[in-house]
Amino acid sequence: MSREFEIRPAVAADAAAISALILSLQPYLTIEPDGSGAEEFLLSLSPDIIRRNLQDANYRYQLAFEGGALAGVVALRDNSHLFSLYVGSAWHGQGVGRRLWELARDAALARGNPGSFTVNSSTFAEAMYRHLGFTATGPVAEMHGIRFIPMRLEL
After folding, report:
1. Residues 88, 111 contacting (CB under 8 angstroms)
2. Whole-prediction pTM value?
3. Partners of 76 in the beta sheet?
4. How far is CA 44 from the centre of its chain?
5. Which residues of 42-73 are buried (b: 16+ CB within 10 A; e: fewer)?
6. What is the mean pLDDT of the chain?
7. Residue 3: pLDDT band by 50, 70, 90 thresholds?
């Protein structure tokens, strides 16, 4: 039986829940399991920064809920950069990330994106992004306590 998710645009009042979801995944995102060295990155995930992004027209967030619990978040910046795609651990492998990505992609295309998207993938998420069609555009990079792979998708 497939799970049912409510998907809706995020609003400023969702900032704390989005922050909590992403920060719950911190060991997957930072080089050091305790987050040391990644303070600047982790600060960018604070409710205040997310609230600011939610109020910025250059960012578009969508959320997936199951039974009232936030299961995932996707955000595009500048209608082309996959800024955030995070799925809570309890929902990994359930198709939430794919559904959120497809929704964000289709909305971006409808708003004029010509079919070109970028993402800086964590090493943990690289296989998922490859499955979605992204390819690496450079070597693994390290900055601000995180390790990532620049990737692109051309439709």
Report:
1. no
2. 0.95
3. 60, 82
4. 13
5. beebebeebbebbeeeebbbbbbebeeebbbb
6. 96
7. confident
pLDDT above 90 for 51? yes
Q: What is the CA radius of gyration of the chain?
A: 15
Among the listed residues 147, 143, 120, 150, the one whose alpha carbon sits nearest the alpha carbon of residue 40 = 143
127-152 burial, b for 16+ CB within 10 Å, e for fewer?
ebbeebebeeeeeeeeeebbbbbebe
For residue 1, pLDDT beyond 60: no
Mean pLDDT of 84-111: 96
Distance of alpha carbon 52 from alpha carbon 59, whole angstroms: 10
Residue 10 CB coordination number (10 Å): 22
Q: Which two tokens stand for residue 63?
A: 């959320």
